[in-house]
Amino acid sequence: MAFSKIERRRKIKMRVRSKISGTAERPRMTVYRSNKQISVQLIDDIAGKTLAASSSLAKEIADQNGNKSEKAAMVGKNIAEVAAKAGITSVVFDRNGYLYHGRVKQLADAAREAGLKF
To answer: Which parts of the chain are coiled coil (predicted)?
Structure first.
């Protein structure tokens, strides 16, 4: 029986999440991608807290012109800057069941270029 797109993503997400976890020193960087927006959070799974977050809905990014891929790159750069201010240099990347291409890849590449290590 074929899985729906949502069920397929849920299964991939659970498979990935069983292997990775974030700590205060090296938080989990998880990506959420909707049809129009993209957001990212740095999560300490041990304490159950979000340490930093960024989204394409943030004022400094939403005011910029560009397509969805360009906005994803801006979000990646922004999260790297926010993480640097919080003293975070290294993260564990969680693509959240999405394929690693397009907007997810743009976000990850921009975060790496801005100084985040993963």
So the answer is: none
Give residue-wise pLDDT tens across range 35-71: 999 999 999 999 999 999 999 999 999 999 999 999 9
pTM: 0.89
Compute the distance between CA of residue 38 and CA of residue 76 in angstroms, rounded to an integer: 10
Strand ranges of the sheet holding 38-44, from the earlier edge strand across to the other edge: 49-55, 38-44, 28-33, 92-94
Distance CA 50, CA 110 (A): 21
Nearest to residue 83, comparing CAs of 111, 47, 55? 111
Q: d(Cα 29, Cα 69) in Å, to the nearest integer?
A: 18
Give the max Cα distance, the chain. 48
Q: Is the pLDDT of residue 73 over 80?
A: yes
